[in-house]
Model the fold of this input.
Amino acid sequence: MWDALLCLAPTVLLFFTAALFHWSPVRTLLERVATRVTRILWKAAYWVLELPTRTHGEWTNALRSDLTGPRLVCKPTALAHHLHLHCPTLLHPSLAAWPQGDPHVQTLASLLWPAEGPSGRGKVHFTRDHFLLSDGGIVALDWAVGLKDEPVVGARGEQHHGSCRTPGCRNSTLPILLVIPNCLGVVTPHLQQLSFLALHWGFCPVVFHRRGHGGCPLTTPRYQEFGDPKDLAQAVTYVHRRHPTATLLAVSEGSGSGLLLSYLGEYGSSSYLTAAACISPVLHGQLWFETPLPSLYHWGALYYRKLQISRYASALSSVMDVGRLLRCRTLRDVEELMFCGSSSSKPTTGAPGEAQSWAEVAKAKAKDWESYWERNEPLRDADEVAVPVLCLCSADDPLVPPLSAPLMTLFRHSPYFLLALTTRGGHCGFAQSGSKVGSGGGDGHVTSTSSWSHQAVLEYFQVVGDFLKGEERGRGRRWASGQDVGGPAQGARLRSGTLLARRRRAVQAVHRKRHQSYQPSQSELPEEDLFTWNRSYTR
Done:
């Protein structure tokens, strides 16, 4: 009998253990203990990896009054009111909580986690189009032409056999979404997921690669500066001429916003873009380079940057000291040596009166660094931007410094800039609670995505397109009834036939020199609260 009892003892023990775990008080206690232990191990991992654990105080205080959704910072315009009414995804997200919502987990997932699942779903096929620039350089345009094992479908689920998405197609009327990666040129899984969702929503994504980035050959012995939009401007003009009836939109990721915002500011109303969006943007480039990144991200970015330089070491050695570049220990030193001409700035030997002191060299390098950012700051010409720009930012972003008061003032007073601040989201993360890439709803849209920023940006583009289209229809009716003061000359410039049509002046007629931005005085600012969007068409 005792032998039978001993044999049944493990089974009885497991039975009572299972019953105990089903008892609600015990289960709750175990969950609290497990959560506590996990948080302790989490903090220990943060300490070992030297990762910051606190959110930026300024943004946290600004968002403390609204913890359930993003805070939309913008001037009270007709477009802002329209977004409040018709853009629910932007204003009512369902962001993931800890641990999925941890800022570093989201950031690392957006940078490293594979975009496609085990079955390959989510993988986007690209075809490359090389474009020769005026100075002999080459940039690359990767056109998303379809999904793996799936036909290319539009916003309503139908196949677009008559609307080719390849670079050579001239009759495509689908909106073209220009995707700009970060300043290192890395096409992250976050951007691949955005391209995947954009195809389902009826957009035509095309990824812009700077010279020497993303496998694009470097045919000139120089890289593109952080905020130099000349190459992007030529690429946008090329895309517009190949697809003259298509609407052009643009979205940037992380530090790639420096290039997009520079382009919008320098070219103003002559830009061919209709609307733009920046996900986790770097709005102050100099501060971003001068602020140390967490070690885990810093060494990864620095290593990748040096790999790019070493690939073209022979060609670059004629214009810069490649050996010193590969010995740099910060991204700022790399940027300064590459573009500020400081690689040759070292004390010279000779007569005492001709010798340079180290103090003079340091002063000259600092001057070169400041002048570099005078021509490369993303918002240096913010007053010239003439298209609506949405910026999605998170309070716990571990890679971007907090917004300063002047930048917040820009969003509160400029009718073209809109800022959506969330309490959590990391850098280009914005994971949603319990979300995954779906197969599509009844209307043909993908019902959910791993990132809230993807849905928010695409819905924003659609809502802005509907708004601008309605503004032009209303303007046409006012002109027809004689209420438009512009008369026939103004009404004749109306465009129609595309979803997001808007008027713009020719690039050749309004291209201006850099650093000559116009600063309006207080007396020239509009007195009314609601901005009239028709002004953006006649600047």
Summary: The longest strand covers residues 138-147. Residues 145 and 165 are 6 Å apart (CA to CA). The two ends are 98 Å apart (CA to CA). Strands lie at 71-73, 124-132, 138-147, 176-180, 204-209, 248-253, 273-279, 389-394, 417-422.
